[in-house]
Design brief:
By secondary structure, this protein is mainly alpha-helical. The chain folds into two domains: about 80 residues; about 270 residues, no CATH class. The protein has 14 helices and no strands. It is globular, with a radius of gyration of 24 Å.
Length: about 375
Amino acid sequence: MIIDTTEVQAINSFFRLESLKEVYEIIWMLVPIFTPVLGITIGVLVIVWLEREISAGIQQRIGPEYAGPLGILQALADGTKLLFKENLLPSRGDTRLFSIGPSIAVISILLSYLVIPFGYRLVLADFSIGVFLWIAISSIAPAGLLMSGYGSNNKYSFLGGLRAAAQSISYEIPLTLCVLSISLLSNSSSTVDIVEAQSKYGFWGWNLWRQPIGFIVFLISSLAECERLPFDLPEAEEELVAGYQTEYSGIKFGLFYVASYLNLLVSSLFVTVLYLGGWNLSLPYIAVPFFFEINKASRVFGTIIGIFITLAKTFLFLFIAITTRWTLPRLRMDQLLNLGWKFLLPISLGNLLLTTSSQLLSL
């Protein structure tokens, strides 16, 4: 039997092409997964650098300037240092809860990015209940903090975990009522539909003008959910040493800070989506038909513009949150709970009642 060498080469080249095609499909499948992770990581590093620079400017200090140009690599250097530091475990603590707690706090917040639209049709998962999925997922994070405090076998840590749970419950309800008001106005709970509902009337269609009371309540509640000053009671160093993270070291200690800044970023993105029109560029007294023509002609350029607009609005809220942290003093625990239950909850309920009444009258 004589085998033609050209046929063998053709068969080998065919199988080689098939294997390359499979590898290409796998890589192309992983690109949508790793691209948001890379973007979120860069966003967290930028927020850390911005907070240090803004706080230094407010307090008339220099700030980071040696690690890289303008100190932009300082956050990366701190993360690398924590990665290689020794990971200590409490001798009489629950090591399983101690190890799982930081992971739950980070993973639950990372899942919230699934429903955030960064541009037109640029969203990982457009669920019909997107905003409520974010609330449900983000409410898991305090459970991880409570596990961390309990597993540390430390009274200060356990009190910090209890404070985190109490604070989350207190401010989750007003925040949910504000989101429900936005859903009623937009006739949808999808984040994409909420943004598109605001784009019908341009700049004046933003929910910021239609829901000013809800915007203020959402702003305060989101800062409390992120445990930012003046609401950082779970880790108040003057009272609880460092709260639920007292016994942590190394990368597990760093995960708490990553979770904090991830939560701040996702809250800022949701403020942009719910109240500031998302990716739409709708400035008063400025006609921008040129951008819309480009958007129709080139989807890539239009997507880049949408991402840029979303991030610009997001970092505007981040500036407000960072400035608030370095301006206002910390509340007491009783003041924190009184603000949530006695003020924000009745105000958010009244705002929801007014929204429902206006929707019924408009029918």
